[in-house]
Amino acid sequence: MREVVFIENDLMCHPPRSSLKGGGVTAENNNNMDLEAIKRFYFIGIGGIGMSALARYFFARGYDVAGYDKTPSPLTDELIAEGMHVHFDDLGENVPAAFKDVASTLVVYTPAIPRGMQELLYFQQGHQVLKRSEVLGLITQSGKGIGVAGTHGKTTTSTMLAYVLSQSHVKCSAFLGGISSNFNSNVIIDADSEISVIEADEFDRSFLRLSPFASIITAMDPDHLDIYGTEEAFREAFQQYADKQHADGFVITKYGLPLASSSRQITYGINTPAADYQGINLRSTDGHFFFDLKGPGVDWKAIGLGLPGIHNCENAVAVCAMCIELGLTKEEILSGLKTFKGVKRRFEYHVRTEELVYIDDYAHHPTEIAALIDSVRMLYPTRHITGIFQPHLFSRTRDFMPGFISELSRLDKTILMPIYPAREEPIEGITSDVLLKEITADKQLLTPGEVLEWAKKITSGVILTIGAGDIDRIVPKLEEQLKANLS
After folding, report:
1. Model confidence over 275-301: pLDDT tens digits?
2. Under CATH, which architecture does the 348-486 domain have?
């Protein structure tokens, strides 16, 4: 069972509700509800990584929490084990009786839920119904919200930042888009710190509902074009987010991003002398990454990371810049980076021997796949590398087909799985077969079951599972099979 991380153990005895205060929140109905009267939260889509973090947060603060998700998963199993009621059928108006009380129940839903879902329609008839991003917006209004936005790297960067802060004298709460390997949770709660680290999601323009004090913006390569329509609209949303920082706050952006914030702007990068903070002298020793840091009054040598990856060195530079600005000491920052273990499904080792290495990664955009392959090549320059990739969304596969072809062709062997549709209907002419034909590496198209059968013969090389769909469901079985091969 995964535990919510408490920095203060008496939080359950004194559940502060100040995080619900704040103006400017627009609900779909019943805008005049007294938020101080809220006693329970109902989450539609409770099993999502972001929704479950909020569910855990409010449950830990003493509220009744229940909700719906489409299918059981390890995460919903954990929520149930922690004491929350979760069901998997659309109950319509037959939701639990206590949650029918309009005055005391706040309903939270994810945009991934179909508009015609019966439970959602029932609650919209009288309850206060908010998107997840609106609730996060309330939380950022009650203290110093630190957002981490970007097409790539925001989950690792926000989790790294939250961990370093939590180990320092500053402390923080955090709402993360992945499971921290240090905390084995996607939420951190500190009753005393005014800082909340929030992964600022660009999907559905959710991050524009936040009121951050300061932010990191890691990347803005176009994505979610099924939502935004054009690359220009996508970039404009990031500009709007950059302008949302508090008047006394600031925004830390990767050097070269076409953003000009109205707040104080700080830049960072790798081998970028013109950036305010830059990482230099990246090197790998015995599978561990090191870099030096230069910045205003800063010249730090041999900063060690607890996890590998060129892209993670870049993320660490951004975290260093933010932590320096927030007043952490050099010792606190370096200690946190060295002991940070990463995020589940982000360059996560499952097998690591002299003969065989198996790494699982959430990469689902060509830029992310490029960073993954670059890091693996740097660590294992002479090994045969096989990537097992599950494309995520028909629209993303269509929009970035040339990029996927280019990056997957860099592998020694590419195994494709069928496209994971998520919220989408199929698009004519967009299939894994079409993608496979253009890849120039040794290649196969396999189902999940066929991947596990293929793995029975593998005893050497580097194996990567790559993707954001349900490919994670084969990870434990693949790990088990590869370890059995070695024994």
Report:
1. 999 999 998 887 678 999 999 999 999
2. Alpha-Beta Complex (3.90)
